[in-house]
């Protein structure tokens, strides 16, 4: 097996997954930064995107769980691929350290910080653009999202926390 036959597909997969991670992170920032009155006003035009946005924000905990489940699945896949790639070319003693550092930098810069800044800076347009894809992700990951949604609400309640804490951050 040649170096290119493993390196190129791995790098391409990581690049694509970083793009998906950026999508989730920028969406989270955008969707949670908009005031409720702006969402209501946008929904007045009755476009599919604005109505979907209003529906998503109607259940902020489930929306947050959807975004976090999607982003964590992607980021764990990135970590796995990078670790396997590094383990192929680097001595075992430093594989974990090198892959941890590499994935941390990649995910923080390209999957979190820059995308979240973009989402905040373009919140209105980006929220409308991503609302339908996020709704599709919620549907695709539905069983997993439901387990984490209900599980985290129950655990939060058992620990004495506010099960609707996200809503307080979305009020005007």
Q: How would you sum up this structure, described in words?
A:
With 172 residues, this protein is an all-alpha fold. The protein has one domain. It is 87% helix and 0% strand. The mean pLDDT is 92.
What is this structure's SSE topology?
Layout: H1 3-33, H2 36-43, H3 48-57, H4 60-89, H5 92-121, H6 123-140, H7 142-158, H8 165-170
Overview in brief:
This protein is mainly α and 172 residues long. Helix content is 87%, strand content 0%. It is globular, with a radius of gyration of 19 Å.
Strand content: under 5%
Low-confidence runs (pLDDT<50, min 5 residues)? none
How would you describe the oligomerization state of the chains in this entry?
Answer: single chain
Q: Which secondary-structure class do the elements indicate? A: mainly alpha
Along the chain, the helix and strand elements come as HHHHHHHH
Give the helix proportion (percent range).
over 70%
Rounded mean pLDDT score: 92
| General form | globular
CA-CA gap between termini: 59 Å
Largest sheet: none
Q: Helix count?
A: 8
Q: Determine Rg (CA atoms, Å).
A: 19 Å
Number of domains: 1
Give the tally of β-strands.
Answer: 0
């Amino acid at each position: 097996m040649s170096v290119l036959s493993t390196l190129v597909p791995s790098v391409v997969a990581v690049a694509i997954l970083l793009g998906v991670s950026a999508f989730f992170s920028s969406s989270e920032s955008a969707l949670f930064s908009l005031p409720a009155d702006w969402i209501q006003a946008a929904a007045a035009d009755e476009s599919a995107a604005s109505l979907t946005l209003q529906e998503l924000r109607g259940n902020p905990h489930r929306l947050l769980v959807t975004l976090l489940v999607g982003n964590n699945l992607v980021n764990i896949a990135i970590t796995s691929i990078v670790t396997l790639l590094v383990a192929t070319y680097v001595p075992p003693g430093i594989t974990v350290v090198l892959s941890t550092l590499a994935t941390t930098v990649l995910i923080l810069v390209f999957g979190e910080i820059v995308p979240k800044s973009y989402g905040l800076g373009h919140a209105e347009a980006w929220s409308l653009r991503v609302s339908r894809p996020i709704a599709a992700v919620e549907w695709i990951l539905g069983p997993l999202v439901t387990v984490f949604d209900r599980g985290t609400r129950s655990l939060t309640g058992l620990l004495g926390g506010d099960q609707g804490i996200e809503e307080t951050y979305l009020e005007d």
